[in-house]
Amino acid sequence: MTTQNLTLYEIRTISFDARIRELGPAGAIRSIQQYESGHGDYTRDRKKVLPKKSVREIGRQIIKQRQAKTK
Question: How do residues 26-39 score in pLDDT, each as one tens digit?
Answer without folding.
Answer: 999 999 888 877 78
